[in-house]
Amino acid sequence: MKTKIIITSIIILIIILGFNVTSLKINKQNDGDWPVELIGVSSISVSKSQFESWVETYEACWSDGDHTWCGVPVWRVAAMVDDPEPEDYSFNEELAAEGYIVKLTSWDGWVTELQISDVAHNDNGYIIANTIDGEELPEFTPRDRPSYPLHLRGEDVFSPNTVGGIIKIELVSIGGNNPPEIPEIRGPSNGKTGTSYTYYFSTSDPEENNVYYYIEWGDGSNSDWYGPYTSGNEKSFSHTWTSDDKYNIRIKAKDTFNEESDWNSLEVTMPKYKFLNSPIFCKFFELLKFFNLPLSH
Ligand SMILES: [Ca+2]
Ligand SMILES: [Ca+2]
What we know:
By secondary structure, this protein is an alpha+beta fold. The protein has helices spanning 2-29, 48-58, 74-79, 93-98, 116-119, 279-290; strands at 36-39, 43-46, 60-63, 68-73, 101-106, 111-115, 127-132, 135-136, 151-153, 166-172, 184-186, 196-202, 211-216, 226-229, 235-240, 245-255, 264-270. The longest helix has 28 residues, at 2-29. It starts with a helix and ends in a 7-residue tail after the last helix. The site of one calcium ion (CA) has 8 residues, from loops.
């Protein structure tokens, strides 16, 4: 009897937990909702009605040929948090002249970054839309991409920048963009000619922009720009040197805005005479040293 009760309890528990996991998944699939976080010099949790009041003041519309998207120009939204006093409406021209990036994040993780110099005073080019054909945005576009609550559209917005499901708008790199750190190199400093060796490279970007790597292997072969990769993650690349020599591996990094880091380098030796590095020769050399016989190695 007791066992029956325990088994029934376990089954009920599993059913309850199972339902919870399912509802958790559904929630995860759509986290796009108000308030939308607006972060800059000051910060605002923007409510739906607050955004609609901005639309009343600054409404801009753009038609993609099939549909008309309306909302607020990006620079007018940036203006709400570009001064210490939030929602003061005036656009901080001085701050814009120094340069910063407007970073738009969707609830599905997609990020689009815009230079303020591209969006400033550009009313129809970059619009943060909250309606389509006069209606509230749908949850998803016909291509199953997030749309509600806010969607970036406009005559200067092209794929993949047409980010929807925007839940966070940030002004980053205020005072200008910075290049990634000098990349670090990890890997063997000597080896055998004709063998492939793997080297690990990493860098971080102060603004967490995506990064690209450019590698010179020292033998005249260069990589093109590899990337984009997430800032802060290690990447590996392999190379084979085909003749005996000393080589200088050089690497630099750049971010999505083409700001380049300085070079880092690592000297690699591929033996001039392979037998000098062979284990048998080394044993033989040690033996000669033991008997005090002269030989340079
Ligand atoms: Ca302002
Ligand atoms: Ca950067």
